Amino acid sequence: MPPAEVVYPSKARELNIKQNVKQEDKTVFISKLIFLIKSRVKLNVKNSLVLQKK
């Protein structure tokens, strides 16, 4: 079996990047993610309301 780095180089790089990320960067990333999810949900709610009115 070849090492995981050979099979999934992008995954290994992802893990390294995640490990190198500072704690404050993590919190910023998480808050951005939450913001994105919230805005996505708001859009979905608006769209469903518009669809219901039709």
Keywords:
54 residues, 3 helices, single chain
Secondary structure topology:
Layout: H1 4-7, H2 9-20, H3 23-53
What can you tell me about this protein's structure?
The chain has 54 residues and is mostly helical. The chain has a domain at 22-54. Helices cover 87% and strands 0% of the residues.
Helix and strand succession? HHH
- Specify the overall morphology: elongated
Which ranges are low-confidence, i.e. pLDDT below 50, for 5 or more consecutive residues?
none
Give the strand content: under 5%
Number of H/I helices = 3
Q: What's the short version?
A:
The N and C termini lie far apart (58 Å).
